[in-house]
Amino acid sequence: MPRPEKIIDRGSGAVSAFAVDLRALRRDAGLTYEGMAEVARYSRSALAKVVNGQLPTSWPVVRAYVIACGGDEKEWYDRWRALQPKPWPAVPGTAAPIGTMPDPGSLRTIPAYLAALADLRRQAGLSYRQVSELTRVGGERIAPTTLFDLLHGDRLPPQPVLLAYLRACGVVQAPVLAAWRVAYTRLNASAALHAVPRQRPVMRVFEPGSEPEPPLEPLARAVDRSAVYMWLGVAMLLMIAILVLEKSA
Q1: How far is CA 58 from each of CA 65, 82, 145, 220, rounded to the nearest angstrom?
Q2: Under 8 Å between Cβ of 18 and 79
Q3: Fewer Cβ atoms within 10 A, N terminus or C terminus of the chain?
Q4: Residue 147, number of CB atoms within 10 A of its CB
Q5: Per-residue pLDDT tens for 2-38?
Q6: Where are the alpha helices (DSSP H) in the chain?
Q7: For the chain, which domains are there?
Q8: Considering the entire predicted model, what is its pTM?
Q9: pLDDT tens per residue across span 86-144
């Protein structure tokens, strides 16, 4: 038998009110945590953790909780977002700590971009398997091992995979998605530019009178061939002369 939920005072703060109201949403839907787990594809403990009175940093789990109970996704997202500490890192170009959202505009390299994507997954409190369940491109689920390889490689993932991954990690607001796409396009263009090095024509400069002499070996071969052709011609002329003398005799 599951343990009874801890009593939370709704008036003790915004986080407590968030948890109490989510509990009420579940009761109004007539669902148990076991029933929610079957619908939401999260474990009972993960769903119960959302309403334990502490700050929930994982929007995908909160979203699954709300959808399973028939709640208004936008309303609850706005409430969840208002509880988060800082939407952007304090120092541009540094990795954002857990519980904050990295600023894609401050990412200058592909490894930094991939590291920020990995931070999103950890921030959401999701395993690769859970992200895989939420990430589908063209109706096909992306395997956890593929996600791991994409985030730990040296190339940007395909854009459809990127967008599906971002949504799975709770990045659902259009301006934020647009910022990630702009950074993606910028880094992709930079990588393509540096992947094809420019080849400059090689110019050989000689001072007057220092031009290199032609190699002797090809010249010697040419002279040898000329001599052979000359003696062949002389031999043919002699043969013709001998034939003419024989006929006249």
Answers
A1: 11, 13, 22, 83
A2: yes
A3: N
A4: 22
A5: 667 788 888 888 889 999 999 999 999 999 988 888 8
A6: 14-29, 33-40, 44-50, 59-68, 73-83, 110-124, 128-134, 144-151, 159-168, 174-195, 216-248
A7: 10-83 (1.10.260.40), 104-195 (1.10.260.40)
A8: 0.44
A9: 543 333 333 334 445 677 888 888 888 888 888 888 777 778 888 888 776 666 788 88
